[in-house]
Amino acid sequence: MPALSQKFRPASRTTRYATPTKPAADPAADALVPANTWTPTTTAPSSSTPTAGSDAATTAPAQTLMRRSRALVERGVDTLAEILARYSITALRVALGLVFLGFGVLKFFPGVSPAEDLAQRTIGELTLHLVGPSAALLMTAVIETVIGLTLLTGRFLRAGLVLLAVALVGIMSPLVLFFDELFPAGGPTLTAQYVLKDLILAAAGAVVGAWALGARLRRDA
Asked: Does residue 59 sit within a domain?
């Protein structure tokens, strides 16, 4: 049996897709918003974010307080400097006068002053033993008392300062006359320390002397 050739052709199927339609343009919207234009949106600042105005409001009172405090301190310093410049030399003069008056009065009473023996020996060495111990002690007492009174009262101050300069030579001379005795083995004794403290009296006398000669304290601006 002859083979039967059959041709099968599939039925043609045509698939149709709907073409999307473009929505109609809104002329009013196109007129308000240009094409290809991005409009940014603004966000209100958070209440927790500090602003320049709030910082200025916070720092202004602090700066004002600092300025007032600085002005108050400077005013106090100026006042203190003025008081010291006016009264410090007078206070130094009175204190120096009290010291010398006390030293001098004690020497009027034998055996009372701790520097009695040192004063007698020093005057004896300086006068080549022409002045006896009792006279040396009395002379020292008179000189120191006069110095103290002139410094305390301010009367005859220049004459008192001249006496002070002479007395300081005698006061400091034991450092030379009795050096080995005052500094055994290189260390100062109690008597040596007593004499060394008179360096402060000499410096104070120099300051008072400069003031008596017309020098005045001046505060730099």
From this structure: no
Task: Let me know if 52 is exposed, middle or buried by CB neighbors in 10 A (0-12, 13-18, 19+).
Answer: exposed
Number of separate helices (H) and strands (E) present in the chain: 9, 0
CB 150 within 8 A of CB 156: yes
Which domain, by its residues, includes 187? 68-212
pLDDT tens readout for residues 72-127: 998 898 888 888 888 999 999 999 999 999 999 999 998 898 889 999 999 999 99
Contacts of 202 (CB under 8 A, 6+ apart): 168, 172
Number of domains in the chain: 1
Relative orientation angle of helices 116-126 and 157-172, to the nearest 10 degrees = 90
Q: Which pLDDT score is estimated for 2?
A: 43
Looking at the domain assignment, is residue 208 inside a domain? Answer: yes
Q: How far apart are CA 120 and CA 129, in angstroms?
A: 10
Q: Are 195 and 173 in contact (CB under 8 A)?
A: no
- pTM higher than 0.85 for the full model? no
pLDDT in tens, 155-166: 999 999 999 999
- The CA distance from 151 to 143, in Å, is 12
